[in-house]
Automatic annotation (TrEMBL):
This is Glycosyl transferases group 1. It comes from the Bacteria. It holds the Pfam family Glyco_trans_1_4. SUPFAM superfamilies: UDP-Glycosyltransferase/glycogen phosphorylase. It comes from Paraoerskovia sediminicola. Gene3D superfamilies: Glycogen Phosphorylase B (3.40.50.2000).
């Protein structure tokens, strides 16, 4: 995806962040073969570096398959970054419902098309990022989750919500 888009978007830099999951040699070989200096893999990020990497990003892409609840997607949305995730990502239904990014299949073509769409339409990228930030704040923040749990617990016991 990055190799294809680098050709058509000469002003964009692609940074792969994360552990190699046993594929480091293959990733290195692919990047060398591509010969594109604007695509780099920096490996895993230390927790204290995560916010810096997200702040530098325009778009956050998680092409993982069957990722149940990826913190990187939550953090990216909290920072107002549009996300691209596969339809097997546990957050895909929320991303899609909120319009916080683009949900794609597992194929390279749909992934490339989604990222291209966000790169080519800055207003769409800004809007989806804003919706992602609102989603995290309204539904996925600690306060929102605590309020929802309290409502569920009270509904099962028949107790009314106490005033705060």
């Amino acid at each position: 995806m990055a190799v294809a888009l680098a050709r058509s978007h000469p002003d964009v830099t692609f940074t792969l962040v994360g552990p190699d999951e046993g594929e480091g040699a293959a990733v290195d070989a692919l990047l060398r073969e591509a010969g594109e200096p604007r695509i780099r893999w920096i490996g895993p990020a230390r927790p204290e570096e995560t916010s810096t990497h997200i702040a530098r990003a325009s778009i956050s892409v998680l092409p993982s398959v069957d990722e149940p609840f990826p913190m990187s997607v939550l953090e990216s949305m909290a920072h107002g970054r549009p996300v691209v995730v596969t339809d097997t990502c546990g957050l895909a239904p929320l991303v899609e419902r909120a319009g916080a990014g683009i949900v794609v299949g597992e194929d390279d073509q749909s992934l490339t098309a989604a990222v291209r769409r966000l790169l080519d339409d800055p207003a769409l990228a800004t809007d989806t990022g804003r919706r992602g930030r609102a989603l995290v704040s309204d539904e996925l923040s600690m306060g929102a989750v605590a309020d929802r749990l309290e409502t569920i617990y009270r509904s099962t016991t028949g107790a009314s919500k106490r005033s705060r």
